[in-house]
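BUG: 3D viewer hangs when loading the predicted structure for this chain

Environment: internal workstation, default settings.
Expected: structure renders.
Actual: progress bar stalls at 90%.

Input used:
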Amino acid sequence: MLGWVITFLVIALIAAVLGFGGIAGTAVGIAKLIFFIAIVLFLISALVGALRGRRPPL
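Structure tokens produced before the viewer hung:
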């Protein structure tokens, strides 16, 4: 997912340099959304992993 974030940021930078402000703003918005989704999924994964590791063996 972070690869997608970098891709959209590069698209935004190129669009901004070429003067396409609307496309650049949209690409930055998508990059932010994907970045925050990746952070939330990472935190959920870390929490589940921590909870699973604390169970006593049978």
